[in-house]
């Protein structure tokens, strides 16, 4: 069985990377002990010790500044936040300092680092433990924002970062990817392009990020089997400075676009993709674009509202059927929503 | 003994006066936060650091830049926005640095280099060197949460950081006394951090002595110190003009200003004037960054 979970791939990438680069270290709250970033830092304290695995007091801004100081002096820090939402406390250092450091000192001071932050979801995480902040951080030149959507890509991004990284990276990891299993495959740096077409199709382009890639693939299978619609699904993993060439190529072919992201639509990923299409070739879009993610409210805690709040495979199917005027069996089956109900907390 | 740092302080003061005088010609298109009155703090502290030690500062870092040995021509060039400046024209007055002299950055955001200094010191500890990192800031920064975060952290890890708090009594135009319910040294002591106060920022010997002790403490692996040095800001918070605080001088400075005493040496003054003019003239002729370089070093 050559498989691994996303969490295991992340853990392995850190271990392998830290073995190769003795001047790398991990910072965060609870990185040494349980919950060890949901298992992604399990065992690394035993191997690398107190010096290189540092549990911090609760001081996100200060911790990011410390990471910056380490980076200036040639150490590669991996900063872990168990929730995206805590990035907002680190934002002054991350945006005003880290993202701008190399530029504002004319290249003489650099801040290579990897910051990992988790998107929480479900089991009543609520408004402050379930945000997915890729859009706001992608706004700032100087910061590279990644959202790995599969285990093998995550391994490659992180191993490369820890061993030869030369810039600040913010990686947003989805909680629900951690326990998913992937065929273990070694992929090279060149192969892990920031946008990859996972499923070739002809009728509609679905650009998806992070966990929504899994939802999009499920929707695409169902649509093919039940409605004869052929979906082209691409996973977008670099959210900052989007490489539009493959997306433009796909939309030129299909004329229809669904963007399935993990956050709100306002000023979000779909907005950015649409801007880039409009600035390149507005004629390739034949019908209104659909942007999916979260409803425009803070995330509700009640599980009865949660399913209203998040878009998923079912909403992707509905959107595609509507855009293509295709027919499909009604109602859209519950098994498309099943993946939402597996997670049972506590955190 | 104290003379070399007083000479440096005089040199810095004359540079600052020159910058203020030239400002209305629009040759320096950058907000300037001048160090007039406070020069001796940087000059004295830096004279007791080694070449291999590190400093980080604030947007008011002209004195720090010059005190660590930064090039005067590079300084003028940076303020003019030239390619030959210490930040290749991207930094300006508020983000001076000089990596070769160990000046690892300054920032326009109050307090933002304080935790970075802790990170630099942590790197030194991991590298097992006895380098010391000095973090310069004003008393205003001590109200920030990140100041508290950093004190806690450096104490837990016994880092070789020397915090230099330049207490000039003013936060823009507000007297600091109206904004602090705490005593800065008492605050730092709560974290087990060694503190020292220099009540008279004109007393070069006192600053030198306090710095030497803090440096020795750190190099012997005994951990961080905080030095609160009372000083005087002569000019307004930002800009070339004079400060309202001239009407309300801060601190009880018993010693006469040693910089003004040294200024009576006309030969020395002439020598410094020549150095300043020459560096300035060079910088004026230096090129601006090419338009094609706008996107350089973004990532």
Would you give an account of this structure?
The complex is a heterodimer of chains A (347) and B (299). Chain A has helices spanning 6-20, 44-52, 60-72, 87-104, 134-138, 151-164, 211-227, 245-254, 269-280, 303-309, 313-324, 338-341, and strands at residues 3-5, 24-28, 53-55, 76-81, 113-119, 144-146, 168-174, 181-183, 195-199, 204-208, 231-236, 257-260, 290-292. Chain A is of the alpha/beta class. Chain A has a 6-stranded parallel β-sheet with strand order 3-2-4-5-7-6, sandwiched between helices. In chain A, helix 1 (6-20) packs parallel to helix 6 (151-164), helix 3 (60-72) packs parallel to helix 4 and helix 7 crosses helix 11 (313-324). The longest helix of chain A has 18 residues, at 87-104. The two termini of chain A are 29 Å apart. Chain B has helices at residues 3-22, 39-47, 62-67, 72-80, 114-126, 145-157, 184-189, 204-219, 258-262, 266-285, and strands spanning 54-58, 103-107, 133-138, 161-167, 170-171, 174-175, 194-198, 225-230. In chain B, helix 2 crosses helix 8 (204-219), helix 4 (72-80) packs across helix 10 and helix 5 (114-126) runs parallel beside helix 6 (145-157). The radius of gyration of chain B is 18 Å and the shape is globular. The A-B interface holds A 23, 25, 51, 56-57, 59, 61-75, 92-93, 96-97, 101-109, 141-142, 144, 167, 241 and B 85-91, 95, 97, 99, 104-105, 107, 109, 112-124, 126-127, 145-146, 149-150, 152-153, 156, 296-299.
Output the structural class of chain B: alpha/beta
Task: Give Rg of chain B in angstroms.
Answer: 18 Å
Given the structure, what is the number of helices of chain A? 12
Oligomeric form of this entry? heterodimer
Termini of chain A, distance in Å? 29 Å
Global morphology of chain A:
globular
| Proportion of residues in extended strands of chain A | 15-25%
Shape summary of chain B = globular
> How many DSSP-defined strands of chain B?
8
Report the structural category of chain A: alpha/beta
DSSP helix fraction of chain B: 25-40%
Poorly predicted ranges of chain A: none
Give the low-pLDDT segments of chain B. none
Number of strands of chain A: 13
Helix-strand pattern of chain B: HHEHHEHEHEEEHEHEHH
